[in-house]
Batch of 2 targets.
Target 1
Amino acid sequence: MATRVRPSSKRCAVIGGSGFLGRHLVEKLLERGYSVSVFDIRQSYELPGVTFHQGDLCDKQALLPALKDVSLVFHCASPAPASDDRGLFERVNIQGTRIVIQACIEAGVQKLVLTSSASVVFEGTDIKNGREDLPYARKPIDYYTETKIEQEKLVLEACNTERGFLTTAIRPHGIFGPRDPQLVPILVDTARRGKMKFIIGDGTNLVDFTFVENVVHGHILAAEHLRQDSPICGRPYHITNDEPIRFWDFMSEVLVGLGYAAPRYHLPYSLVYGLALLLWLLALILRPLFSFKPTFTPMRVALAGTHHYYSCDRAKQDLGYKPIVSLKDGIARTVESYPHLRQGA
Ligand SMILES: NC(=O)C1=CN([C@@H]2O[C@H](COP(=O)(O)OP(=O)(O)OC[C@H]3O[C@@H](n4cnc5c(N)ncnc54)[C@H](OP(=O)(O)O)[C@@H]3O)[C@@H](O)[C@H]2O)C=CC1
Ligand SMILES: CC(C)CCC[C@@H](C)[C@H]1CC[C@H]2C3=C(CC[C@]12C)[C@@]1(C)CCC(=O)C[C@@H]1CC3
C-alpha cells in the first residue's frame, strides 16, 4: 500500500502569488526558509525557490499539482476591485474559492489562510475602530465586496479541527507599497488629468492605510500560529498599520512626495456621491453603445469621504501582531519606489 508523504511544514503555496500582495508574501516566505509553489493566472517574475503553476483557480485539475506536498496555502487571488464584472467576481471569488477549499482537502493541505478584506463590514457609512464582531455588510457597496463576504464565510466555515483542516482569514485595509498597481497609479493618473484638486467632505475622515510588509507579517503570523487548539481557527483578523490617518492627508503626502500639488478645495460629500452615482448609472445604461470608466465611482467616493478604520487588538492578542513598518516609513519607501510616476518623469 502506498504511504502518504506528510507534507513538509516549510513547503507552502501562494494562490495569486504573481499579484502585488502575493509577490511580497512569496519574497518574505523565501527569506524565512519556505519553499513556495505559486499558482496564478499569469506569471510576472521568476525567483529561485519558487515553482510557478499558471492557471485559473476555478480549474481544480490545474490547481491540484500546485498543492502537491504542501501543508500550508495562502489564497490571495481576486479580480481587481475596480472591475465592474459581477459574473467574474462570482466565478472567481465564490465558485473559485469553493474549488480552492476542495482542492486543499483533496491534496491533504492542513492550513488555509485567506486574504479577505476589512471592507466586508463596510456599507459606505462611518466605521470607527471597527472590531471583527461587526456584522457583514447587509448592503455591500459593490460586487467586489459582496463576493469577498461570501468568500470569507466559505473559508471560515470550512475550518474543521477534527479533520485537521484549519482555516483563518486576514482582513487588511488599504494596502500600499512598492509595486502596488492600483492606489498610487490611480492617484497619480487622476492628478495628471487635473482631477485631484478637490477634497470630498471636510477632509477630517480617518482611514487605515496598511503598508504591504505589515500585511505580509500578519499573514505569516496567522499561518504559524494556526494550530488545532488555537483561537485563530475559523476566525477573521484585521491587520492594519494601527495608525489611522486622515484620508486626504495620506493622499496629499503621496502626491506631494511625487511632486504634485495637494488637493485644496472642498466639495460637499453628498453632492459628489450623488454625481458619482449618476455617472455610474449612465455608464451602465450606455455600456452597449460605448464604454467609459468614471474615476470617481460611488465606491471610491464613499471610501474617500467617510471614516473607516479598524481595531487590530484581536490580532495583537492572538497572533502577537504589531506593525513592523510605520506609516511614515511606509509612505517614504512607497514614494521612492515610483520614480516613473513623479511629476515631469
Ligand atoms: N489591495 C488592497 O488594498 C486590498 C486587497 N485585498 C485583497 O488582497 C488580495 C490581493 O490583492 P492585490 O495583491 O492587491 O491584487 P492583485 O490583483 O495584485 O493580485 C491578485 C492576483 O490574483 C490573480 N488572479 C485573478 N484571478 C485569478 C484566477 N481566476 N486564477 C488565478 N489567479 C487569479 C491576478 O491576476 P490578474 O492580475 O491577471 O487578474 C493577480 O495576479 C485580494 O484577495 C484582495 O481582495 C484586501 C484588502 C485591501
Ligand atoms: C480618485 C481618488 C478619490 C481616490 C484614489 C485612490 C483610490 C484608488 C484608493 C483609495 C482607497 C483605496 C482602497 C481600495 C482600492 C484603491 C482605493 C480606492 C480597496 C477598495 C482595495 C480592495 C479592498 O479590499 C479595500 C480597499 C479600500 C481602500
Note: The two ends are 65 Å apart (CA to CA).
Target 2
Amino acid sequence: MFRSALHQSRRAAARSARFASTSAKQQTLKERLSELIPVEMENVKAARAEHGKKSFGPVVVDQLYGGMRGLPALIWEGSVLDAEEGIRFRGKTIPECQELLPKAPGGQEPLPEGLFWLLVTGEVPTQEQVTALSKDWAARAAIPEFVQELIDRCPPTLHPMSQFSLAVTALNHDSAFAKAYQEGISKKDYWGPTFEDSMDLIAKLPNIAGRIYRNVYGQGKLPAINPDKDYSWNLANLLGFGESQEFVELMRLYITIHSDHEGGNVSAHTGKLVGSALSDPFLSFGASLNGLAGPLHGLANQEVLIWLRKMQSKIGENASDEAVKEYVWSTLKGGQVVPGYGHAVLRKTDPRYMAQREFALKHLPEDPLFKLVGQVYNIVPEILLAAGKAKNPWPNVDAHSGVLLTHYGLTQMQFYTVLFGVSRAFGVAAQLIWDRALGAPLERPKSYSTNAIKQMFKDKTA
Ligand SMILES: CC(=O)SCCNC(=O)CCNC(=O)[C@H](O)C(C)(C)COP(=O)(O)OP(=O)(O)OC[C@H]1O[C@@H](n2cnc3c(N)ncnc32)[C@H](O)[C@@H]1OP(=O)(O)O
Ligand SMILES: O=C([O-])CC(=O)C(=O)O
C-alpha cells in the first residue's frame, strides 16, 4: 500500500513535469512551485509511511561531543554532499550544472537564476524562465531608505559581514511572512509569503553588498540596477566591475557554486533552525550570515588570502617549495589551521575548488598568486597527512576563491565572505520555502550533560 502511494505520487510528478514542459514558457517559478508542492507533500507522506520507523544505526556518545559529525538529523532538499565526489545540486554535479543551466548571451558560465530554479523545483528551467527571474529580481532589488541609512551609518571599521547581517536582519521590517502571521495566516499558506520574502531577500542582496563595498572602500556612488541585465552582471556592476565580462562570468560561476552545500553546514543549518521558529526569511538568513562569518566556515576565504599574503611577505614571491613547506609547518606548529584545507564532510579535493581552478586555467593561467595557490596545493596535503590530525588534507572551496577576486582587482579580502553570503542565500531560501510548504516542525533536538551521560551508562557495559 505504501509502495503504491509512492508510485502514485511519482506518476503525478511525471504528469506534472510533462505539463511543465508544454507550458514552461508561460510558467513563473511560483506557478510551477504551486503545482509541485501537493505532489511533494504526497511524496514525503509516502516516504515517511514506508521508511519512517527505519533506523540509520546507533548514535554514539562521541558524536554528541564531536560536533555531531555524521549524525543523520536533517532534511535538506536542494543538495546532497558525497564525501568523495562532493556536492550535487538536485542530483546534478557542478560540471553538469555548468553544461545544463541556461547562460547569458555570449556567456559560458551558468546563470545563478537557473541554479535557484533548480534548487527550488528540481528542474532545469528554460532560457525564458531564467530571463523572467532576472527581471523579477531586478524589479525587487531596491532596499528601504532606512536600511540604506543603517548601512551608511556603520563605521568603515565594522566588518562587512556584520554590516551585511545587520542590513539583512533589518529587511524583516517589510516581511510578508511576519505580516501575514500577525494577520492570522493559515499554516497551509505559509509557503506563499515565505516565497515572496525569499525572492525579495535574494533580489536585495546586490544593493546591500554593493553599498557596503562602496562605503567601506570609498568606491563612489552606487549605480542603479539595470532591469535588462542578469543578477550577476548587476552585482558586478554595483561593485564597480560591470565593464569586465570576465569578472561578470566569475560572479556567475561563484554565485552558482557557493549557493548550497546540503543542510548540515553552519550557515544552512542555522537558517533552517531559526526558520523553524517561524522567524521570517530575513531573520533566518541574518542568522545564517553570522555563522558564515566564522573563520572555520565562510570567513576562510578571507583567511586564505591573508595567509597567502603573510607567507609572501615572510618568504617572498616565487619562493621555493622548501620555503613554502617550512611556512606551512610553522602555521601548524603555531597551533593554527591552514585556511582553505580540510573539511567536516569532504574527503577529496572539493569540486568547487576544481571549478575555480579550471576558470583560472582558462582566464588567468599566468597570474602569480594563482601559481602560488597551485604550489600550495602540491605541498599542503602531504604536510597535513604527516601532521596526522586532519581527516581531510585536501583543499576546500575557500582555498581558491580569493585569488580569482584579487586577479580582477577586488583586493579587499574582508569583503570576500559577503559574496559568499550573497550566494548562500540561494540555498537557504530554497529550503526555507520547502520547509514552510511541507510544514517542517520546530527544531528541538535533545541535549545531555556529561553527568547525565555518565549516569545513563553507569551500570551498562556498552
Ligand atoms: C565553506 C567552508 O566552510 S569550507 C571550510 C572552511 N574552513 C577552513 O578552511 C578552515 C581550515 N579547516 C579546518 O579548520 C577544518 O578542516 C574544518 C573546520 C573545515 C573541519 O573541521 P573538522 O571536521 O573538525 O576536521 P577534522 O575532523 O579533520 O579535525 C581533526 C583535527 O585536525 C585539525 N585540522 C583539520 N583541518 C585542518 C587544517 N586545515 N589545518 C590544521 N589543522 C586542521 C582540526 O583542527 C582538528 O584538530 P584538534 O583535534 O586539535 O581539534
Ligand atoms: O559543508 C560544510 O560544512 C562547509 C562548506 O563547505 C559549505 O558550507 O559550503
Note: Residues 261, 265, 344-345, 396-397 surround oxaloacetate ion (ligand 2) (CB under 6 Å).
